[in-house]
User: Which sequence fits this backbone?
């Protein structure tokens, strides 16, 4: 049986240099796997257009098919999927220990599923000693006072949720925003912009800040406002 989580990601490799081994679960975003199931219920048109699903390793058809297969397995038998996912988390934790690294987990590599809920097995709650983190466009999830303390969420900006971004920042959460040129050290809405491409360890970032990431893949060409573009004269 194949593993559900992977450690193959250029940003997570950077995290290893800081002592962390990151396991990521990549699913098929939106309703790609099943028209009746939306893995990204809060995605905007711009987010969909700029999705990194087909960027990097995702450009290969075998990788896309694997992500679709995993998503369909989650839909078909959620309990069995959760059992396998927990086994993978245990496996990676042991692997990290052998390498002298701290295991951390990102379960929404290309999705926005509420893994902290009963429906999806309350995964972070099952492993209270482990660090989980994700990006989400659900302001309710990000600001939920009952969210597990070991599950760090960064709110994701899109072209139509600036009001929610400000609310997240005012409440002490970080906001990830995509730029064509990341103005590191400058400010957006009065909050400092940091370089989010240095690594993916968002739970280590100071709060509240703007986590600036450079537009990649399809995002380089989208013009909905999802990508914050440098003002040129």
Assistant:
């Amino acid at each position: 049986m194949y593993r559900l989580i992977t450690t193959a990601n250029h940003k997570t490799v950077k995290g290893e240099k800081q002592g962390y081994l990151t396991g990521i679960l990549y699913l098929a975003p939106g309703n790609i796997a099943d028209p009746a199931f939306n893995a990204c219920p809060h995605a905007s048109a711009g987010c969909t257009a700029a999705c990194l699903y087909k960027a990097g390793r995702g450009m290969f058809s075998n990788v896309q098919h694997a992500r679709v297969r995993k998503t369909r397995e989650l839909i078909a038998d959620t309990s069995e999927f959760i059992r396998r996912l927990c086994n993978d988390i245990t496996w990676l934790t042991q692997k990290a220990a052998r390498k002298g690294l701290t295991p951390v987990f990102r379960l929404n590599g290309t999705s926005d599923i509420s893994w902290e809920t009963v429906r999806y097995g309350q995964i972070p709650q099952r492993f209270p000693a482990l660090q989980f983190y994700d990006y989400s466009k659900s302001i309710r999830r990000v600001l939920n006072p009952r969210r597990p303390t070991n599950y760090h969420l960064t709110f994701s900006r899109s072209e139509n949720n600036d009001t929610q971004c400000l609310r997240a920042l005012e409440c002490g959460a970080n906001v990830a925003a995509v730029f064509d040129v990341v103005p590191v050290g400058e400010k957006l809405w009065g909050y400092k912009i940091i370089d989010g491409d240095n690594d993916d360890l968002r739970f280590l970032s100071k709060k509240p800040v703007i986590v600036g990431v450079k537009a990649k893949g399809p995002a380089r060409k989208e013009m909905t406002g999802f990508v914050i573009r440098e003002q040129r004269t």
